[in-house]
């Protein structure tokens, strides 16, 4: 293998490049990035960057010296437009490029309302653009009370904005964390003066009574460039349990839908830590075709909302039941355990010491029986 | 022999605890807020590989290694 091409220069792509070098790959590593910046961190976009607490330079995931040490053939501001699996060639807006190994990490882009020009939050420019429009007396409407929308609402309140938060479901985040935890989070937002309007589906930003509108209704994988390539696309690049989409082709990060053998389900995970872990796994499996290892992580994400920090482990979305097994929702210091079938599949912790949470993460990794842990 | 020194940018830490999971002999977390604690900023050669892994997986890029 002489040339490995990594398409996508964010956390997953960076992790893939670093892992290739750490594992001793001495050939050419070409990194393609549509954005002109070197890899930067996205979670602070809806937190410290939007709050104005951090300068964008703090978001760089690696220093220039660390990037240099990777000896990359970096092509930023370059977009991939096509893939020919048979010819082992991708098409860039600058021309064709042959590869021996390919790692697809093209991420996602925000969904928008039809025909609207409102704010979204995915890039540094998005966050800075919204930041300069927020301040005391400004009114912000946030469409979608998922984690991104909820975090942005919290930051905007901290900046003195009036905030109205729209959510089509009866309880925000219920599909992700369950109704009781979702209700608790709704109460927290209302206590902080957010005008939360649940059961409301916003189809157009025009009718909203606000100075600025942030649309945070989820995202869609950047896979159009793979249409006609023969790779299976189904809300992401479909991969096996090794994160392989085809021989010599792997996918990682937000764009990858793979079979997580720990839960026995296909999942696509837009979490920060998954981007790194899957980028690493994809690079290792690509380099060692005869010693591949299934990618079987316990997904993890955190979310900052006001003074609460949420840590969630596992596959919460498909849960059958939730139980508070430590602390209480009223105290906002608790651990919620999530059951699917007869197994523990997830845990969500707020305000608990890490030592109290780690055994739960381990139990999820061990596919523990629900009756054994509750 | 390679020496590794750990520089930890504490204000960037998001308390994910990935480092303490990957390299529990070198990193721990504070009880009250989960922020990482470096137990040994010049770990021995036996820890170098897991420390590199910890730096790589840190979701806040808060762990820097000075290798000499």
Automatic annotation (TrEMBL), chain A:
Keyword Cell membrane: no
Keywords, ordered alphabetically: FAD, Flavoprotein, Oxidoreductase
All residue ranges annotated as the FAD/NAD(P)-binding domain in the record: 3-279
Cofactor(s) needed: FAD
Residue span(s) of domain Reductase C-terminal: 300-367
Transmembrane parts of this sequence: none
InterPro entries linked to this entry: FAD-oxidoreductase/Apoptosis (IPR050446), FAD/NAD-bd_sf (IPR036188), FAD/NAD-binding_dom (IPR023753), FAD/NAD-linked_Rdtase_dimer_sf (IPR016156), Reductase_C (IPR028202)
Keyword Cytoplasm: no
Pfam families linked: Pyr_redox_2 (PF07992), Reductase_C (PF14759)
PANTHER family in the record: APOPTOSIS-INDUCING FACTOR 1, RIESKE DOMAIN-CONTAINING PROTEIN-RELATED
Protein name per UniProt: FAD-dependent oxidoreductase
Record lineage: Bacteria, Bacillati, Actinomycetota, Actinomycetes, Micromonosporales
């Amino acid at each position: 293998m002489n040339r490995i091409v990594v398409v996508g220069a964010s956390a997953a792509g960076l992790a893939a490049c670093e892992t290739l070098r750490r594992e001793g790959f001495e050939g050419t590593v070409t990194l393609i990035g549509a954005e002109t910046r070197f890899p930067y961190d996205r979670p602070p976009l809806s937190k410290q960057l939007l709050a104005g607490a951090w300068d964008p330079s703090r978001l760089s995931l690696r220093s220039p010296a660390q990037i240099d040490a990777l000896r990359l053939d970096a092509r930023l501001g370059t977009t991939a437009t096509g893939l020919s699996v048979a010819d082992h060639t991708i098409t860039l807006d600058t021309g064709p490029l042959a590869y021996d190994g390919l790692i697809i990490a093209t991420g996602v882009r925000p969904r928008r309302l039809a025909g609207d020009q409102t704010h979204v939050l995915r890039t540094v420019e998005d966050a800075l653009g919204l930041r300069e429009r927020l301040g005391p007396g400004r009114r912000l409407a946030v469409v979608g009370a998922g984690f991104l929308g909820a975090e942005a609402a919290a930051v905007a309140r901290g900046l003195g904005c009036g905030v109205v938060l729209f959510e089509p479901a009866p309880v925000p985040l219920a599909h992700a964390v369950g109704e009781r935890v979702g209700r608790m989070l709704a109460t927290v937002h209302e206590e902080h003066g957010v005008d939360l309007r649940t059961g409301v589906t916003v189809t157009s930003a025009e009718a909203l009574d606000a100075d600025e509108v942030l649309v945070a209704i989820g995202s869609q994988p950047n896979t159009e460039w793979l249409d006609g390539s023969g790779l299976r696309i189904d809300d992401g690049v479909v991969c096996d349990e090794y994160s392989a989409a085809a021989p010599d082709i792997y996918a990682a990060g937000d764009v990858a839908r793979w079979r997580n053998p720990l839960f026995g389900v296909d999942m696509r995970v837009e979490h920060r830590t998954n981007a790194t872990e899957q980028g690493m796994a994809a690079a290792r499996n690509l380099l060692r075709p005869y010693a591949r290892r299934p990618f079987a992580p316990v997904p993890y994400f955190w979310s900052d909302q006001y003074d609460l920090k949420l840590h969630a482990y596992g596959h919460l979305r498909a849960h059958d039941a939730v139980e508070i097994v430590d602390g209480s929702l009223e105290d906002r210091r608790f651990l919620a355990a999530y059951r699917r079938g007869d197994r523990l599949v997830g845990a969500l912790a707020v305000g608990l010491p890490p030592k109290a949470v780690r055994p739960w993460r381990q139990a999820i990794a061990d596919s523990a029986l629900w009756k054994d842990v509750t | 022999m390679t020496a590794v020194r750990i520089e930890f940018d504490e204000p960037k830490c998001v308390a994910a605890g990935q480092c303490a999971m990957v390299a529990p002999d070198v990193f721990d977390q504070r009880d009250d807020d989960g922020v990482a604690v470096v137990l040994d900023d010049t770990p021995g050669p036996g820890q170098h590989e897991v420390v590199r892994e910890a730096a790589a997986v840190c979701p806040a890029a808060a762990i820097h290694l000075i290798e000499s």
